Amino acid sequence: MKEELLKIKNLSAGYDENIVLHDIGCTVRQGELIGIIGPNGSGKTTLLRAITRILKPHKGEILIDGKNVWKIPLKEISQMVAVSSQLLDPVLTTVEEYILLGRLPYYRKYQFFETSKDETIVEKYMRLTDTFRLKESLMTELSGGERQLASIARALAQEPILLLLDEPTSHLDITHQAQIMELIGRLNRELGLTVLMVLHDLNLASEYCSRLLLLNNGSIHKLGTPEEVLTYRTIEEVYKTVVLVKKNPLSGKPYVFLITLDKIGKDLDRQNPDDS
Amino acid sequence: MIEKKITRWLTVLLILSALLVFVSVLSLCVGSAGIPLKRMINIISEGRGTAEYSILFDIRLPRIILGFAIGGALSLAGTILQGMFRNPLVEPYTLGISGGASLGVCINIIFKWYALIGVLAYPLSGFVGAILVIILVYTLSMKKGILRIHGMLLTGVMISFISSSLVMLSMAVSRTEDLHSIIFWIMGSLDEPNMFMIKTALWGALAGLILSYFFCLDLNALALGEEEAIHLGVNVPRTKRTLFLIASILTGFSVSVAGIIGFVGLVVPHFMRMITGTDHRILLISSFLAGSCFLILCDTLARTVIAPLELPVGVITGITGGIVFIYALAKRQVLL
Questions:
Q1: Is the ipTM of this complex over 0.90?
Q2: Which H helix or E strand runs over B147?
Q3: Whole-model pTM above 0.80?
Q4: What pLDDT, in 10s, does the model give residues B100-152?
Q5: Which residues, at least 6 apart from A1, have a Cβ–Cβ distance to it below 8 Å?
Q6: Which of B231, B236, B272, B284 should be substituted to probe chain A, the one whose Cβ sees the most A Cβ atoms within 10 Å?
Q7: A58, A70, A77, A78: best to mutate for the B interface, most B CBs within 10 A
Q8: Selecting from 3.40.1700.10, 3.40.50.300, 1.10.1060.10, 3.90.245.10, what CATH number does the domain A4-229 have?
């Protein structure tokens, strides 16, 4: 059993009087790639925001590497946890300057300029994320997919032990979806980076994640391998949508099909791959 | 790459400093009594006593120093506020500080406090008005120790409206000679006979510049948004509070010494961002220097165009700043 990296104990969190997450508990071990799924409003992003100290929990605690996040100095946390979220309004800087901002957590007090080490690290992650060719471009000129890659590169420049991603593939075409998921998979396999990401696409989540955390109404509905979580019964219960689940013929992972209601025949085999 | 960046930044600083020297010398030379550069050396070597010496060092130089301080302070405040609000339309006067200062000065003029305290009553009452507005905006926008930025903007705009209405009201009920002094104060001028005020403005502006540099990297992170800045390890609540205080005090004393000189704090930061980019490590100081140059130049124009009469400097900053800015926008398709 690998080392516990993130432990969430009895966490309740939310906004003022509106508590979104109720009494959540789970453990993420080092090297895992976990997908957080669930309907809109189920508390996926709230969970990420609680981990990164944007939201103060009402109850319970979050431990990273055994330490309560609220007892670690902010600067130290930003060296351990990095977040890449969707860039809705990008800033008017070059890609390289933007990614260099990921080195801010490592600036010493009164340090004014980045060091050559910072530059080497930034170049390394620009090459890894295929953004090196864009380094002189302005962030505003990039396409959605390129922006997302730059955002991941900036998060990687923080050299975190835990990478959080908030819907890294939404609004992207399948080329970029695949590119980004492959990149995340490679980071996880080759660098041993622990990744926790919010995903809307159940099939991408099934294909790439080692475990899935299914949230519903602010509680953990199920936590387990894609085969355990993505059964048609569970999905219908949580998403209130009729689906069909089959195995992906190549990877063997479950694949969720949406079903048009008026085409459901009585004799349709809606067996779950696990049951058949 | 880092060497390239430092070279580029030093070049910008060098050009701006040269420009500042040039504008200052120009401003010393021209005026209702034109003094050519060659004469100036003679005048300085002859020393005190001559009328020209006194024009140079008692009238023109103090104005240049004040222009340097006020122009720098206003555009620095604008840069800080635009950076922390992530909104290019914010300027030092958006937060209602100028409104509060004008109201303070209006009350001073109407109730004739200046007869009690002397000339210092004008800047003093302006500063008190500004500070009251700062406290009001700050406490109204504070919720659970966090400065809510958008609420703050709206509060500031509303306070601006309220105080300008009150200023109008006091103008409507005041006597003609009071009306005249109110209008002239509001239009803004660098004509400040009190050397103490000039020195205070100078040291205040420089202190603001130095303090703001402790937050230049935090401002760069804030450009990504408040949550992203937290992810990068920035103590966002503390940074916002301190930056707001720096910017509003800079604005407060600028307005109370020189009246409402518009446009410097809005246009100069934009203009410099087009030239240097959004990195606050170079943007803060270059905005300061460019604001100084711009205001000294505008003031020189204000006192020469219809010499011996003087135009309000706010009129010049508005017209020249606006035209240059529209031209630059049209020429370079830069997104703001």
A1: no
A2: strand B146-147
A3: yes
A4: 988 998 888 888 877 777 778 888 898 999 999 989 988 888 877 677 877 88
A5: A29
A6: B231
A7: A78
A8: 3.40.50.300
